Amino acid sequence: MSAELRTNIAVVGAGPAGLAAAHAALAQGADVTLIDDNPSPGGQIWRGTGLARGPNVKQARLLASTRVVAAPQAGSLLLESMNEGQVLRYRRLVVATGARERMLPFPGWTLPGVTGAGGLQALVKGGLDVRGQRAVLAGSGPLLLAAAAVLQQAGAQVVLIAEQVSAAALARFAWALRAYPDKLMQAVALRWSLRAVPYHSHAHVLEAVGDERVRGVRIQHGERIREIACDWLGVGFGLIPNTELPQALGCDVAHGAAVVDALVHTSVAGVYAPGEACGIGGVDKAQLEGRIAGLAAAGADDAARALVPRRAPQLRFASLLQKHFALRPELLQTLRPDTLICRCEDVSHAQLSQFDSSREAKLLTRCGMGACQARMCGPICADLYGWVVDGHRPPLQPARLATLMSEPSNHDRKGVQPS
Amino acid sequence: MLIVGAGIIGSALAECCVRRGMSVRVVEAGIPAGATTAAGMGHLVVLDGSPAELALSDDGLRRWQARRAELPAAAEYRACGTLWLARNDAEMAEAERMRVRLAGRGLACRVVRAPELRRLEPELAPGLAGALLRPDEVVIYPPVASRWLLDEALRLGAGLLRGGAVQAVDEGAVALADGRTLRARNVVVAAGNATPDLVVGVPIKPRKGQLVVTERYPDYVRHQLVELGYVGATHGEVDAVAFNVQPRATGQLLIGSSRQYADRGTGVDWPLLRHMLRRAQEYLPRLGGLQGLRAWTGFRPATPDKLPLLGRVPGAARLWLAAGHEGLGITTALASAQLVADLLCGSDPAIDPSPYDPVRFGPFVTESDTLPAEVAA
Ligand SMILES: Cc1cc2nc3c(=O)[nH]c(=O)nc-3n(C[C@H](O)[C@H](O)[C@H](O)COP(=O)(O)OP(=O)(O)OC[C@H]3O[C@@H](n4cnc5c(N)ncnc54)[C@H](O)[C@@H]3O)c2cc1C
Ligand SMILES: Cc1cc2nc3c(=O)[nH]c(=O)nc-3n(C[C@H](O)[C@H](O)[C@H](O)COP(=O)(O)OP(=O)(O)OC[C@H]3O[C@@H](n4cnc5c(N)ncnc54)[C@H](O)[C@@H]3O)c2cc1C
Fold it and tell me: Which of A254, B128, B292, B309 has the least C-beta neighbours within 10 A?
């Protein structure tokens, strides 16, 4: 267990951002290692089809099904694959860890059959058979439409899309989209493909009902409350950047995203964070930033700088998303005292609402101490109780103890020579 | 009286004193039980590194045992027993000597040979020679136990000032960071590692420890497991690791232990962590396949002789210390509280207080010369 790898540029995450970074750096002749915890590249949107749909990264060393579990010291990452742990030494690091779904709890959200909206989409892309089954998608943001389209295509009957923001906010978003003809066209095409599906704005989930499994969902739609039968309920409130690795590296994080400069360089020398990791903005932003990061990491600063002006509209689009899909406060009001907030450790809303810091709640209720290490409940508690959820402890994800024992080889610990 | 610090030591003292009818106020700068008390393992264990260590830990364990029924379920009190593991004949001989010493105090214990050890703990390495079994030792969850003591004190009439950062202490008075002065007949500093900030010269140094907790593997091990060399490791002065694995009520394993003096950073020391885990793997050969959830560090408030400071600040009449409990403060909290409460009341403690008397390191400087004039007056 003491295998040690070296690379000039390590890219963590093989989604659109990571693939673009790897491609750009390879084109500069750099030696690149691309690491992703999925069996094949693609990230959230291309799901395993990244080699076909993304740029050419054949020259990279690809470590698939491999997770970065810690950053034990500057210049090295601890990796875990199916059967081994190893240390990777790098000179430059591109952190393209993407995002995960933002969840909000409501009564019944732990019932089987209730998942994230993107999570349900991913299950279906992964082969879950939903033919003839009724699905409701609820929450907020464009991802609801994308998920609904995938479900519909797979033969599910999407009985409702419930978007929490008002019709007026949606109209303002659509109006602002005119500056982004491609995105507007995509949205229109998506909406058209879903024309048979009822779409409610100003609608949110009050409760998922069912005993063994979800049977239906109660929806607050404006003033009305409706109950709709369904077999699946996919709920998502947009995305949150995965900042655990940047944080472990010591990078500044603000408003939930890695802080980067124009060349998507973080506050730590030699570390870049393109894509959703530095702010939610979709696949175009991710690819552009990936290219910038890959070029800059390979030392092609001028080429990287030439792309910087193109970033401005992407950042404006990102702020549009944030602005127009802001959560309405009523969404946090559906909770009952016994609604679970921390699913790993079974901690309820009633237990947590008596505390005023996450640390104290954690100490006394074990909230956030379970297998997910607050990846799920941390952001939820921040939304519900206004807590600042304190820093992560290693490992980044549960890891075999054998991995934590793996060690860089003894000879030459000085790091990698420039190639 | 006024207690500075609501870790397990200050909380136990508050509870004990309020039960004796004293008027008690606790001042805590941060989260009660949020400092060292939140970071440790919660093994209630009798250690016999010295006669005084033995006396205090024995008394402490007995007091926890006596209060078992009162503890809330979330304190996860479990009398899982301790196995002190011997690798070879020399360590078996040490186990036997330890048995004689502990049995001499009326403590239940017996030597377990290799075949029985295999039955008790099938995951242990086959080559071990045996163990000393202390069947009635306990594992608890320290922050909840500590908060229970504090809540009991508050229920019985004690007061708590949260967010009260004490800046200086003096005979019967403390100055808060916000400029206020609180007065009391007696002031007890139970500020753990921060004690030397308030009473300059108190020889308490933070001794860093690292722990790893795993996912849930119920019954993977059933006893608290410690290597026999552990007592030696706790008394050394160099960075060291020792095998120490604890089964939690949740089915998780808590893996220790390490001791470091020089490192004051809260981050994980990876080389030492690897070393610690490899040590654990020597005893539990299949450990590497378990999933580790989280690693963290804590700082034991250590004194040069590994005994706490319990009693008056040398030369002072109304300023006291209850600090420096190193890696044994959960075990010894209730014993320390009784002892200090006895001294405060002028009654004779059940155990000889002299080994813990701060005078052994005195005299110290209190911050009185830095108190604003109108406060010191
Ligand atoms: C559930 C979900 C569904 C989505 N569906 C759509 C959709 O249908 N349409 C759309 O336009 N956008 C969708 N998005 C948004 C999409 O993620 C972005 O637009 C875009 O893919 C971002 O690219 P990225 O490279 O920044 O991140 P991602 O595509 O998220 O790629 C990050 C990659 O890094 C890996 N990774 C993270 N941490 C580690 C680690 N420690 N070790 C190893 N690997 C790691 C991840 O597994 C992932 O493969 C979805 C997002 C989510 C979360
Ligand atoms: C890794 C590790 C493992 C351990 N394992 C065990 C074990 O298995 N068994 C065992 O018995 N013990 C164990 N211990 C030891 C035990 O945790 C400590 O001895 C005990 O918690 C010390 O308690 P305390 O109240 O003195 O200190 P703390 O818990 O640190 O409390 C001191 C309090 O004082 C407050 N304070 C400090 N300065 C000020 C100020 N100026 N004004 C106001 N308040 C202030 C702090 O905020 C804090 O809350 C372990 C310790 C560590 C680190």
Answer: A254
